[in-house]
Design a protein that fits this description.
- By secondary structure, this protein is an alpha/beta fold.
- The protein folds into two domains: about 150 residues, Rossmann fold; about 130 residues, Hypothetical Protein Tm841, Chain: A,domain 3.
- The chain is about 40% helix and about 25% strand.
- The strands form three sheets. The chain has a six-stranded mixed beta sheet, sandwiched between helices. Strands 2-1-6-7 form a four-stranded parallel beta sheet, sandwiched between helices.
- Strand 9 and strand 10 form a beta hairpin.
- Helix 3 crosses helix 4.
- The longest helix is centred in the middle third of the chain and has 16 residues.
Amino acid sequence: MAVTIVTDSGSDFSRLEAERLGIEIVPVWILFGEQRFRDGVDIDRGTFFARLRAGENPKTEPPTADQFRAVFTRIVDAGNQAVAITLSSGISKTHAIASDVAGEFGANVAVVDSRSASGLENLLAQYANELAHSGASAAEIAKRVDPRNFKSATYFAVPDLTMLGRSGRLPKALVSLGSVLNVSLVLKMNEHGEVGPAGQSFSFDKTCDIMVEAVVRGIERSPRARIAFGHVEASETVEKLRKMFEAKLGHPPGQEIVSETSPTIAANIGPGAVGISAIVP
């Protein structure tokens, strides 16, 4: 019985990449005022960023139960199993919704909480897809890709905390700290899958250096580490971050990807954000 990997648009896959890998994407909803769009279906990255640059303030809503049900039904009716890897339950209701629907399908559908988002969610989905192609069952894949079972890390920095604060995913006290003291915060996804502080500096360059040090230390310089670099309209900054990381690591990682975040993520952190995610399965 084959296993199909499912994830949400918070994983930053482009539609073409997901199709190439055979990974199913359940889109998060992007809201501009009263207008609602499915990320990657009704609105593409170019249109989203054009509206963001024009000063519009987007919001997000998780996929509906019917969205997950339709994908799971199609997979199971074809005689296959599914493993869904979702945005962290600490920042989104996506995981709870997917888990509730998965219960309707018994052992044929398993759901994994990424306890993160963006690059780490992407890395987990790719790892799960490799396991699926090796013949592993849904239950085995779900166990092996659970980030609680191996070293993982997500660190990121946001030049302007306004959008992250508005989303409710960063405590107001931290937003005030960054704004009033004019410091650049290093943020991380903590062990509960929530956004928390990891350091601060008075320059964005130093913030990037702190991120690199934290990830390299967290993965213990493992050659098996899989690394994802993400950015929101900050390609030059993320390339600088990537080179800093490679220099600190001292050897090529087991896997390395660089991507611009999806509207799902960008709507909550804003332009200029950069981040590093890593897993050592």
